[in-house]
Amino acid sequence: MLTVVVILLAIVAAIFGIILGYSAIRFKVEGNPVVDEIDSLLPQTQCGQCTYPGCRPYAEAIANGEAEINQCPPGGEATIAALADLLNVEVIPLNAENGEAKETKTIVVIDEQTCIGCTLCIQACPVDAILGSAKQMHTIIASECTGCNLCIPPCPVDCIHIIPVEQNLNNWKHPIPNGGHSAPKAS
Amino acid sequence: MESTKLKHFHGGLHLDYHKDISNKNSITACKPQSRYVIPVQQHIGAAGEVIVEKGQRVLKGQMLATTKKLISAPVHSPVSGTIVEIGKHAVPHHSGMEADCIIIENDFQDEWIERNPVAENYHQMNSHELRNIIRNAGIVGLGGAVFPTAIKQTEININTLILNGVECEPYITCDDKLMQERAREVLAGADIIGHIIKARECIIAIEDNKPEAITAIQLAIDEDSTGFFRIQIVPTLYPSGSEKQLIKIITGKEVPRNGLPADIDVLCQNVGTAYAIYQAVFKDEPLISRIVTFTGSGIQHAQNLEVPIGTYISDCIEQCGGYSKDAYCLIMGGPMMGYSINTDRLPIVKASNCLLVSNSEEIFPANTEAHMPCIRCARCVEVCPSKLLPQQLYWYASASNFERAAEYHLFDCIECGCCSYVCPSQIPLVQYYRSAKSEIWALEADRKKADAARLRHEARERRLLLQKQEREERLRKKREALNKKKGKIEENEMDAKKAAITEALARVKKKKETQNIKPKNTDNLTSEQERLIKEIDQRRQTIKKITDD
Question: What is the chain B residue with the closest CA to A124?
Fold first, then answer.
C-alpha cells in the first residue's frame, strides 16, 4: 500500500515538475519588468547625478537593491514619492550628496560667438541635443535639451550657459489659491 | 413655433442676469484706432507662424500668421497699415503674461486685400473646400472656447446641428444682439455648416429671456422655405449654454466621457461662429472683428461694440464714455467664468465676448484671499451640471493628490463656477480645479518629454555601440589583410631562397660533370701525408664507434 502511494506521489510530482519546467521556458520574461517600471518614473535627463551612468542603470540598481530611491535630484520629491509608491517603501528625503533639486527647470544655450567647434559637448550630450561638427559652430536643440548640464564641464572655452525654461501661455500653471483653510495633505 | 419635450441636466443655477444693462442699444462699430495689437495665438492648439516683417505694409484682411499644424488657426490684419513691431505684448490671459504679438499702425485707408467671395456658389462646393475657406479665415469657436472651427466640422453626416444662442452667463448680450440684428446672416452661416456636415436639421437654441432674439430668428426662419431650421426655446438656467449641457437639454443624450458630440450625432456651434462663417463665405472676410459686450455698473454707457480684433480695451471703454465712479474691477468674460485683468491696455482677442467693469458688490469670483473650511454641506454637489463631487475634487486638488482628482473626473469639470457661487465657505473651488488641471497637464508634458529623452538616449546608445562594432570590424579586417600580406611575403622569400640554393647546387653539379673537376688535394701525396690521413680516419672510426654505442 505504502509503495503504491509513494509511486503515485512521485508520478504526480514528476508531472508537475514537467509542467513547471515547460512554463519556465514557454513564459520566460525577457529582462526585468520592475526595471522598466522604475525607468519610466525617472526623468530621463541621463545626468548621472545618481552616480550611475544614466537613468536605466540607476533603475537597475534600485531594482537590485543596490541604490536608494532618493538619488535623483532632477526628479526631486515627486519622483521619490512615485518610486516609493511603486516599490512600496517609505518616502525619504533627497540625498544631498547627489545634488539639490532645481527650483525651476533649466536648459543650456551655446554662446555661438565664443564656440570654437571642438565637438566635445556633442560627445558629452546623452540625448543628442547638440548640433554641430568639427570647427563648425554648435547649437543646442532647445526642445530636446533635458537640462542635465553634462556638456558644460568639457567645454574648453566656457561658452555654454544655463538658462531657465521660458514661461509661456502654454506651460503656465494656474496657481493654487492660498486659502486660509485648505485640506490637509492626503497620502 | 414647434416645441418638443425638453430634458434637464443635473444642477444649474438661477442667477440675476443683468442683461438689460447692455442690450438696449444696437451694435455700434468701434471707431478706428491708430494702433492694433494682434496676438499670434488666439486659439486652442499650436501657435501660428508669423509671415510678415517689421516695417511691412499690410492690407485689411491680410494674413499675418499662418499655420501648418492641424489644430491651429491663422490671424489676419484688422486694418490696412504698417507693422511697427513684432514682439512680446501683454495679452488677456489668466496669467497676465506677455505673448508674441504683431503691432500694426493704422493708416486709416481701410484698404482691403483682394476678395473673391464664393457666396451662393457654396452649394456646389464640397465639404473639404468649404472647410478650407473657414480654416483660412481663421475662424474659431466664438462662444469662448476658441477651438478651430474647421476641425470641429470634419465629421460628416451628422444628423443635428445645434446653433447655440443660449448665452446663459449673466451680463453678456453679444449673441443676443447679433441674433436680433443679423438673424438672416446667422441662419445663412448655419446653412453653410449644415451643408458641410450634411446635417438633416438645424436647431437654434435660445433661452426664454431673449424674446427679441427669438422673434428675429423666427422671422428669418419663416422667410426660409427649406424647413431645415427650427427654433428651440430653452428655459433660463445657468449653464444651459455649455455645449454638453445644451445637447442634454435638447436631445436628452449625454456626450460620452472623453467623447465628442459627433459620437451622438450632434454638432454644436455658437451663433457668433455661424455669423463669422457667413462673412467668410459670402464676403470673403476673415475673422477680423467680433461683437463684444461692454457692461457693468463701472462703465458709463454699457453697450455692444463690433470691435476689430486687436483693439485696445481702453480705446473701447473710451468709446463707451469711460469708467464711472463705481468702477472697481475689470473682468474679461462674464462674472461666472471670466477672470480679472489688471490693466485695460490689452487687446480684444477672438475669445473676448464681454468686458465687465464691475463695482465692488458685483464682483464674482469671490475674493480668494482666505476662505473658510469646507463644511461638506454638499451644496456644490447639488448644483454641479457635470454631476461631479466638487467637495471631493477640492479635497484632492488642495492636497495635490492629482491622481485621485483625475479619478473623480476632474477633466469633466466645465469650470462653470456654480460650485464656487453657492459655496457658503466662499472657497474658490474652480481655481483649485484649474490649478490641479494645469498641474496634471504639466506632469503629462514632463512625462512626454522624458519619454522622448529616453528614446533619444537609447537611439544614441545604439548608434554608439554600432559605431564601435563597425570600427572594430574595420580594424579586424585591416589587421587580417595585413597579416595575410605579411605571410605571403615570407612564403615567397623562403621559396626564392630555396630556389636559389637548389639552382646553385645544380649549377655546381653541372660544372663538376662537364669539366670533370676533382678535389686538387688528393693527388701526389707524400707517405707522411697518407699516414696522417690513415691515422685521422682511424680516429674518426673510433669516435664513430663510441658515439654509435
Answer: B460
